[in-house]
Amino acid sequence: MKIKQVFENNKLWIEEKLKVDKDYFTNLSKGQEPEFLYIGCSDSRVTAEDIMGVQPGEVFVHRNIANLVNNVDLNVMSVINYAVRHLKVKHVVICGHYYCGGVKAAMQSSDLGILNPWLRNIRDVYRLHKDELNAISDEGARYNRLIELNVQEQCVNLIKTAAIQQAHKERGLLVHGWVFDVHSGKLIDLKIDFPKILENIMEIYKLE
């Protein structure tokens, strides 16, 4: 696609929005009150708004390689704090996807340069669950299970933060773990047991 086409597409998009609602952009400029914070993968095939069926202003989005919540990543930590403490979102979602290139790359025995420390987080997930994963003989199924477990562990990382703990206590904020199946288009709820995870980690990670 040529760059010029992007701006042509933008004009058409504006026209379509104004046909439906002449005040669309006026209302959009007034601010945002999203109910969801979505932390997903940077993969170009997976867009939060499309798979959730939501409109601009309804979901606050952060994306990075393999949808990680790394406590020393100031980017994701800033997004979480802003969304939870200032936008007052009601739900925080970690969404991975099957056939994730980042997860697969993390498990290859090759030097990936600057990606090494980032993807090491996924290797840590494998280490925590290696007995279960090593018991899966099919490589594709093993990777997809690792993708699910990575979502689960990123939810745990999220629940360790003070912002999440305080918002849950004060106004019932919830954490969810999802996986998007690129092959079928389905969004799968992993049914992360937020209260149980919170209870299990509070002895060490209580920050209220």
In words, what does this structure look like?
The structure is a single chain. The protein has 208 residues and is of the alpha/beta class. The chain has helices at 3-20, 24-28, 48-52, 74-86, 101-106, 115-128, 130-134, 139-159, 162-171, 194-205, and strands at 36-41, 59-64, 91-97, 174-180, 187-189. The protein folds into two domains: 1-30, no CATH class; 31-205, Beta-carbonic Anhydrase, Chain A (3-Layer(aba) Sandwich), CATH 3.40.1050.10. A five-stranded mixed β-sheet has the order 2-1-3-4-5. Strand 4 (174-180) and strand 5 form a beta hairpin. It is globular, with a radius of gyration of 19 Å. The mean pLDDT is 93.
Brief rundown of the structure:
With 208 residues, the protein is α/β, with parallel strands linked by helices.
Helix content bin: 40-55%
Beta-strand percentage range: 5-15%
Shape call:
globular
H-E order: HHEHEHEHHHHHEEH
Q: What are the low-pLDDT stretches, counting only 5+ consecutive residues below 50?
A: none
Give the rounded overall mean pLDDT.
93
Assign the CATH architecture of the largest domain: 3-Layer(aba) Sandwich
Write the layout of secondary structure elements.
Elements: H1 3-20, H2 24-28, E1 36-41, H3 48-52, E2 59-64, H4 74-86, E3 91-97, H5 101-106, H6 115-128, H7 130-134, H8 139-159, H9 162-171, E4 174-180, E5 187-189, H10 194-205
Parallel strand pairs: 1-2, 1-3, 3-4
Antiparallel strand pairs: 4-5
